[in-house]
Design goal:
Elements (H helix, E strand, L loop, with lengths): L2 H14 L6 H12 L6 H21 L1 H11 L6 H22 L1 H6 L5 H19 L10 H13 L7 H11 L4 H25 L10 H27 L4 H18 L2
Helix pairs in contact: 1-2, 1-3, 1-11, 2-7, 3-10, 3-11, 4-5, 5-8, 5-10, 7-9, 7-12, 8-9, 9-10, 10-11
């Protein structure tokens, strides 16, 4: 993997992890265009590194919130921080169960099935369009909403379904305050990213002997810096009801991908 490809993949991951256009779908499209081996060891290692970069950018931006969540987990009383931490944990369960029991089936979908990616991008576009039309509200995430948002996150494991788009859209459609919906969406994914990374690293599927580490470092830097900017931008976009523009983008890219598979 050369430096230019690493930069492109870093930029794509940094932007699409937070913007509601599906990071997994765009990485599959990018790997197909760049000619990367979609199931190769180097590609898997790069994917782990890029996800670590965007997870780290989330931690930097929401560091105060994460400290409160950890404090809440160890305060077994009816405190606001404990309740919020409990909702984060509940929201993680559906995706964690999918990862544990259907991992092989999910991994099989990440093998260049671009028709699937295109179709899921169209679904993402519909969700974003509906969320953009939702009325503003001051409602906070409750237990029921946390579980439903968690189900959306589990569905978003499919390549082409935007995780942030699906979870934020679900929350907003359920009447949650838009800024709180974005905050909850970004916080709920951090533990799952680190869990998935640990699983990949410990699986033995990654071989490090023949790996060139400079492209990994370059990809990490670009994904981290781009992720910082994209995360802040996304919160403003959700708050200002500007998701429809990403819906149009998903419709266009999804349509192009589907058409290209038949040409």
């Amino acid at each position: 993997m050369d430096i230019i490809n690493a930069i492109l993949l870093g930029l794509i991951q940094g932007l699409t992890e937070f913007l509601p256009v599906s990071s997994s779908g765009h990485l599959e499209i990018a790997k197909s265009i760049l000619g990367e081996d979609k199931v190769g060891q180097e590609s898997l290692l790069m994917t782990v590194v890029l996800h670590f970069a965007t997870a780290l950018s989330t931690i930097v931006i929401f560091r105060k919130d994460l400290v409160e969540i950890f404090k809440g987990l160890f305060k077994f009383k009816n405190a606001e921080s404990f309740q919020f931490a409990l909702k984060i944990v509940l929201s993680m369960i559906p995706a964690a169960l999918i990862g544990l029991f259907l991992n092989d089936e999910i991994e099989a979908l990440f093998g260049g099935a671009l028709t699937l990616v295109g179709g899921m991008l169209l679904i993402t576009g519909v969700l974003l369009f509906l969320a953009d039309k939702a009325k503003s509200s001051s409602k906070q995430v409750g237990i029921k909403e946390a579980v439903l948002i968690g189900v959306s996150q589990a569905i978003a494991i499919l390549p082409g379904i935007s995780r942030s788009g699906a979870t934020i859209s679900t929350a907003v459609i359920l009447g949650i305050d838009k800024e709180k919906a974005a905050r909850f969406s970004f916080l709920m994914v951090v533990p799952l990213i680190f869990g998935k990374m640990a699983k990949d690293v410990l699986s033995g599927s990654i071989q490090y002997e023949s790996t060139t580490f400079l492209p990994l470092l370059i990809g990490f830097i670009f994904a981290f810096i781009t992720g910082l900017a994209a995360c802040k931008w996304m919160i403003k976009l959700v708050k200002n009801s500007q998701l429809k523009y990403f819906a149009y983008y998903c419709f266009v890219i999804g349509g192009i991908v589907i058409i290209s598979t038949f040409i």
